[in-house]
Amino acid sequence: MSEHAVHPVPQWWAENALIGADEYAVKYRASIADPDDFWRGEAQRVTWMKRFNSVKNTSFDAEDFRIRWFEDGTLNLAANCLDRHLPAKANDTAILWEPDDPARPGRTLTYGELHEQVCQFANALRADGVKKGDRVTIYLPMVPEAAVAMLACARIGAVHSIVFAGFSPDALAGRISDCESDIVLTADEGLRGGKAVPLKANVDAALEKVGVRRVVMLRHTGKDVPIVEGRDVDWADYAAGQPAECEPEEMNAEDPLFILYTSGSTGKPKGVLHTTGGYAVWVSMTHEYTFDYRAGEVYWCAADIGWVTGHSYVVYGPLMNGAITLMFEGVPNYPDFSRFWQVVDKYDVATFYAAPTALRALMREGDEWVKKTSRKSLRLLGSVGEPINPEAWDWYYNVVGDARCPIVDTWWQTETGGHMITPLPGAHALKPGSASFPMFGVQPALVDPADGHILDGANEGALVILDSWPGQMRTVYGDHNRFIQTYFSQYPGKYFTGDGCRRDADGYYWITGRIDDVINVSGHRMGTAEVESALVDHDAVAEAAVVGMPHDIKGQGIYAYVTTMEDVEPTEALRKELVQWVRKEIGPIATPDVIQFAPALPKTRSGKIMRRILRKIAENDTGNLGDTSTLADPSVVEDLLANRPHVA
Ligand code: PRX
Question: Is the pTM of this model over 0.90?
Answer without folding.
Answer: yes
